[in-house]
Amino acid sequence: MIHLLVGNTGAGKSTYANKLKLDINGVIFTLDKWNKILFLPDKTENDGVNWFLERIDRAEEVMQDLILQLENSGVDSILDVGLSKFKHREKYRKFAKENNIEVKVHFLNIPKEIRKQRVLKRNLEKGITFEFEVTNENFEFMENWFEAPLETELKNSIVITE
Question: 158 — phi, psi (to 5°)?
Answer without folding.
Answer: -105, 125
